[in-house]
Design goal:
Elements: H1 3-16, H2 28-31, E1 48-52, E2 60-65, H3 68-84, E3 91-96, H4 104-108, E4 112-117, H5 137-144, E5 151-155, E6 159-161, H6 166-170, E7 179-183, H7 185-189, H8 196-200, E8 209-217, H9 218-223, H10 226-236, H11 245-252, E9 258-259, E10 266-268, E11 283-286, H12 302-315, H13 329-351
Parallel strand pairs: 2-3, 2-5, 3-4, 7-9, 10-11
Antiparallel strand pairs: 1-4, 5-8, 6-11, 7-8
Helix pairs in contact: 5-10, 10-11
Length: about 375
Amino acid sequence: MGNREYDKLFYVRRLISLNSWQIRPNLEYAIETKGRLGMNLSDLSSVQIVAQNRAASSRRCVYFCVDQKFFKFALFVANQIATKFQRRDFDICIVSAEALAPHPLVEHHNIRVCQIDTGDLSNQVPSDERISFAAYLRILVPSVFKDDYDRLLYLDADFFYQRGDLNQLLDLDLKGKAVGAVRDMVQLRKPERNTKDFELFGLPFGKYFNSGLLLIDTAEWQKQKVGEKTISIAAQNFDRLPYHDQTALNVALHNNWAELSLVWNYEYSHQTMYFSAMFDVCFFHFIGRRKPFKGEYGGFPKRITDEYNAFFAQHFPKASVGLQDGLDIENKWIKHVFVFIFHMLNARRFLRNDGRFQSDWDVII
């Protein structure tokens, strides 16, 4: 059965009833099994770099995983970081399963670009038009880079850098955990709420993170076989992954990760945009389908859209992207009325996050 057939089955089952599925709580069955096409998912050593523009030059790295479609958006964030940290003690790397078109910014900022061979793995994990196989590369990279880097910081391509010392973040003590991350929006508003992801696997309550930012201790990742467990869970559970790689990662790391302050991965949407003024945000994460570089209005202020517009005008003048231009409040004011109402109704829930972390560098286990 091909990927598209599995996708159809997955969404049909979701529409019928999430709660009617039969759950197998034991996850160990997935770890030492073979995938649908016979690849041994307990050993990711076959996933290797097949092309790169240069070798590693530091023991730490900020990396992105994209296909050609999202390459330009990863370059936007990489350009922000490289411009801010011109004398940085970390590599910036863009990883893809396909050959990416060359771009002058890669050489200008000394960005490492790696193409990796994943074999048949793309046919063994679920993906769709919105979440492509490139999303799973973040799980493979720590094993591929295990000899190159001690610390990794993964970022989605729809991030926006505002402030924060990434050198210090890469040195953060994770208290023996393999991964540091930020709680997902569903638990930032309702911290005691178990997620549908865990319920589908018969798991008890656990803290649930957004996989858009992952601070990774490479040695611990390898020791705990996080990559193998996550890929195996994804390959064996097509119909129980409402958020694809994020679900699989959270199941593999159930109650075994370090929580970082939300300022490192502030999920920007109609639910949180006005609350952002209450937090000294380091990275904005444009979750969902509305993004500053897509045509559908998302309520992004000019200080954000102007930076995107300037970047694409200079570096991708012929790119076909739906760039936005500020709030356009004269035409969109009614949308903001409803957003204000939502914020008022959820202010108590969300603003309880103020003060949970005393500084950018606090970690909660």
